[in-house]
Amino acid sequence: MDRALRDIWLLNFSTFFFFLGISVVNPIISPFAITLNATPFLVGLVAGVASVVSLFSKPIGGLIGDRGYRFQAMMAGNVLGMLAGLLYITSALLGNLWIFTFARAIHGFSMGIFFPSSLSTAVDLAPEGRVGETLGWRGMMFSLGNIIGPALGGYLSDLLGFVGAFSFTVIFSLVGLALVVPVWLDGRRAVARREERHEDVSYSELLRSYFVAASLALFFFSFSYAGVITYLPALYKVLGMPQSLFGFYMMVIGISSFIMRLVGGRSADRMGPIPVIRAGMLLVILGYIVLILYRLPPYSYVSALLIGAGFGLSVPAMQLMALGNLPQRIRTMGSSVYTMFFDLGMLGGQVTLGYVAGIRGYAGIFPLLPFIAAASLIIVHAPLILGGRKR
To answer: Which GO terms describe its molecular function (predicted)?
Structure first.
């Protein structure tokens, strides 16, 4: 196997195990907090602390990566994941919610350190003309980790208890670390020779039309998506329906997205990112329309299929649009800023649509989602509308 291809796949699998170590904890956060007599407010605080810390730590991850330490950042992310896992175990043994909350914060920090470098190295190592495809594979590993992890975490907690389930966070993070080490040690690669310290770094170069448009489009995309993943399960709960129905809904989205990511990446390489994003966003909008008409299973699963497929097409193409033409010396910070727009969109969607739900009820937010997604579709065309040129 070609050395560059080997390195790509080692980092792909490292990404899979890193996010597997995170997502295996997700389904047991609330049950574990409740067993420690946490109030509903504290349950929400514990669940959200990792996302908030991740949002603010991403610029740090970007600075580290742009100083030539991308692989070290990925290793550090896995080491912090192992530390978080050990603290999870400690909190379970001592019955201490605050140790668990601190562990969630560390895991959030690890995401902010790991993910920007994971994304930028996919662009760095990609063969000529196959950047979108490589981003698609990297995204598939991210999706696969988030598909398998929650199901595995629920099963392990039932079988082994909280301590046993938390132990797998340490194991998966250790595997993720072991997969990055050979790439880091391989000093003979051309990319390793290029990864030197860059003294003259100007982040004003991020103000490129394609980067700005892709980031803003991602913001509105995640804003609309927050309405589905936050308030559709709330609607099911109010209607007295089992939460397993929404779990299956998310599984359909995950599988559909997983399948389409490679298609989206390869298509973006051939046609350019904007046509692929357009197709993906139209599928997402169609999925939202179906959800307005059919909010309940089994017909609601059609919307999950469409949203997941649109997600899978759009995400690698948006990443290519945002990062493909950035200079390598600022690409990791670009990855940080770009992914922060996803986090900001999720937070903004949860808060704003929560206010709307308080006025119109949970079902009242779904008619708004196609219009929010349409804003993303319009924004992604701004460079072309304003006379930009695809490189």
So the answer is: transmembrane transporter activity
Kindly report, residue by residue over 82-119, the tens digit of the pLDDT.
999 999 999 999 999 999 999 999 999 999 999 889 88
**Number of domains the chain is built from:** 2
Which range, of 173-182, 348-357, 377-386, averages the lowest pLDDT? 348-357
Gap between the Cα atoms of 192 and 183, Å rounded: 9
Report CA-CA distances (Å) from 308 to 252, 314, 386: 7, 10, 30
Shared-domain flag, residues 131 and 274:
no
Q: How many CB atoms lie within 10 A of CB 355?
A: 10
With beta carbons less than 8 A apart as the criterion, state whether 22 and 111 touch. Answer: yes
Whether residue 338 is found in the same domain as residue 288: yes
CB count in 10 Å sphere of residue 152? 17
Residue 188 pLDDT > 50, yes or no?
no
Inside any domain, residue 319: yes
Q: Higher confidence at residue 199 or residue 343?
A: 343
Instruction: Looking at the structure, tell me whether residues 209 and 307 fall in a common domain.
Output: yes
Q: Would you say residue 194 lies in a domain? A: no
Between CA 7 and CA 4 the distance in angstroms is 5
Q: Identify the domain containing residue 169 by its residue range.
A: 1-188
Cα–Cα distance between 158 and 171 in angstroms, integer?
Answer: 18
